[in-house]
Automatic annotation (TrEMBL), chain A:
<feature type="domain" description="Cysteine-rich">
    <location>
        <begin position="3"/>
        <end position="83"/>
    </location>
</feature>
<dbReference type="Pfam" id="PF02754">
    <property type="entry name" value="CCG"/>
</dbReference>
<protein>
    <submittedName>
        <fullName>(Fe-S)-binding protein</fullName>
    </submittedName>
</protein>
<feature type="domain" description="Cysteine-rich">
    <location>
        <begin position="138"/>
        <end position="222"/>
    </location>
</feature>
<dbReference type="GO" id="GO:0005829">
    <property type="term" value="C:cytosol"/>
</dbReference>
<dbReference type="GO" id="GO:0016491">
    <property type="term" value="F:oxidoreductase activity"/>
</dbReference>
<dbReference type="InterPro" id="IPR004017">
    <property type="entry name" value="Cys_rich_dom"/>
</dbReference>
From TrEMBL, chain B:
<dbReference type="GO" id="GO:0046872">
    <property type="term" value="F:metal ion binding"/>
</dbReference>
<dbReference type="InterPro" id="IPR009051">
    <property type="entry name" value="Helical_ferredxn"/>
</dbReference>
<keyword id="KW-0249">Electron transport</keyword>
<dbReference type="GO" id="GO:0051539">
    <property type="term" value="F:4 iron, 4 sulfur cluster binding"/>
</dbReference>
<dbReference type="Pfam" id="PF11870">
    <property type="entry name" value="LutB_C"/>
</dbReference>
<keyword id="KW-0411">Iron-sulfur</keyword>
<feature type="region of interest" description="Disordered">
    <location>
        <begin position="441"/>
        <end position="491"/>
    </location>
</feature>
<feature type="compositionally biased region" description="Basic residues">
    <location>
        <begin position="446"/>
        <end position="455"/>
    </location>
</feature>
<dbReference type="InterPro" id="IPR024569">
    <property type="entry name" value="LutB_C"/>
</dbReference>
Amino acid sequence: MRVALFLTCVNDTLYPDTGRAVVKLLTRLGVEVDFPMAQTCCGQAHYNTGYRHETEPMARHFSDVFGEYEAIVTPSGSCGAMVRELYPRLGERARAEGRGDGLATALAPVVPKTYELTEFLVDVLGVTDVGACYPHKVTYHPTCHGLRGLGLGDRPRRLLQAVKGLELVELPGAEECCGFGGTFSLKNADVSAAMGADKVRNAESTGAEVLCAADNSCLMHIGGTMARLSTEMRPVHIAEILASTEEEPAA
Amino acid sequence: MSGTFVGMPAFPKAAHEAVNNPTLRGNLRHATHTIRAKREKAVAEVSDWAELREAGKRIKDHTLRHLDDYLVQLEESVTAAGGIVHWAADADEANRIVTELVKATGESEVVKVKSMATQEIGLNEALEAAGIHAYETDLAELIVQLGKDRPSHILVPAIHRNRGEIRDIFAKEMSEWGRPAPEGLTDTPAELAEAARLHLREKFLRAKVGVSGANFMVAETGTLVVVESEGNGRMCLTLPETLISVVGIEKIVPTWRDLEVFLQTLPRSSTAERMNPYTSTWTGTTDGDGPKTFHLVLLDNGRTDTLADEVGRQALRCIRCSACLNVCPVYERAGGHAYGSVYPGPIGAILSPQLRGTASEIDASLPYASSLCGACYEVCPVAIDIPEVLVHLRERVVQGGEVTREGNKVVLKPAKGHAAERAAMRAARWAFARPGAVRAGQRLASRTRRLHPRRLPLPGPGKAWSETRDLPPVPAEPFRDWWQRTQGGAK
Ligand code: SF4
């Protein structure tokens, strides 16, 4: 099977390790991965801040770049939700504004083929044990868009539970938002920071070494708060845990 | 603190204080987390919750689609039952109508059962200006009124107060309004409730005019419905000679059968009870029983304008259960006052900028008072997609566009203060259409990465971020360069 990796602009620029982990993991599972070089950004920040018209050409670009692939895999719950949940809405709104079906038709092919990484592993490849080894105590934060947008359910937990040596501990208040919310964290910095601090305190109470999530944007905010609160814990993307093996362990 | 919300600062500024007030945050956290857990249990008991939610949504949508017909039907049935219907286009008109009606009775005081519609229009203040005292009789409303405070929650308007604060308010203020608090009042719930009971009982027995809101109005029979927990509302509805009910036009349901759905979903979503303790219904007037005169004031105040908006109109499905407030992480930290309206929390963030427009600073900031986490949508018993409406209203703020105001189509200009953001968004969009530009930017960032501050305050909007969080380090090589160099690790 040949899939396209939609890494997302944040991961591409700031978290290349996550990208390398996805490639390593999928390749190990026998999947042929391509990284279309023309990819940029799904437009989520634009859309969520109120710039729907600015988002449309970005969505079209996404569709041009990824339309031909059998499946599109992304290590980001929120960017995955953008494509799956909100691209159809972009099309509908354009139609409602009397601009015809063009946008909806252009976006339709990519919507059902886009998968968040853990979803792809469990639903498409049908694996929960990916042969990983990660001897650490880990707690998992289900990010809002993964949880409620994509409905990832217990897929990430099942994958983590199958990892050799990994001890998974429950995060109190797991389903509460960490306070990132893209531009929300800039526009309502006080509230966002208070939410982040509570999330970090809850995570600390578990005694885990690692807080893991399926979205580096949330991890950037949580990790930044951890550093500021001088927490021992580290934020790690789930892909890096799943890619880790006995021979080539992740940090 | 005044009783109204006029001239509130933007949400982030208003929230700043609450976020830094540990007592308030403690009160809010405790209250919302307790009710949140209870609600979850109460909802889990019902095997067909998803169907009830869908049914509630459909009934409301159907009613809103045919609102004009149902309102005419309601007017006919209320009139046939001996009531008098008045139509109020906005707050001023509604206040004028009610003030005239009270004046016509020759009375100078009224008792009130908790009504958000009257708070929305500032009725108490309008009555006061005409020399009429309005007494709130819902316990939490009483606390807010005596404390010269503002409500901060739909269901528990005094949620931000603890017992000690309430005792002090009662001891200090009750005598100014009527029967004083008993000597040596303590902060035990029983004593506080008894003090309120004695104080209120006196007012109920004296008052000739009652003012109420309603949770529902049944079009087929002209019946109004109030659900409450204390029974004080029932006193207000039955003891006075004249009853004036002020109700938003969206509160209508076609038939008694439709009520069945909401009388299940409302109590479980709001107080986590299986059934509501007091459900009062009244239909026009009846000889020898209850008020002799009944007036219904139907309030628009921005509702038909909201109805004209395809995406935003779903806010009118709201049954004011407050479940969305109790799960909202932003409400929990910012408190209800920061929303600058009698409707706080997620529903307030989408309702106020629609009812009042987005012209003021606070109304333009409300659509951003959310991280779009979606918890509100998940719990809403009438499935209002609050995040969708928030984003839709953000679009209105930054891009302007066509809206309906007082029945006329007007084109809004983008709100002020978003020029820099708009430019940045455009620039980013331009770059993202050009992979080469993205790459150049990444390379520049990588090459200068040692210069990027992780802790120093950044200028502009970045400042808010870097004051409380460290920024991530910029990697030496963006992914795409690695990919190209190694062909995905193959080389
Ligand atoms: S929006 Fe939904 S959850 Fe919030 S108060 Fe209204 S009905 Fe309840």
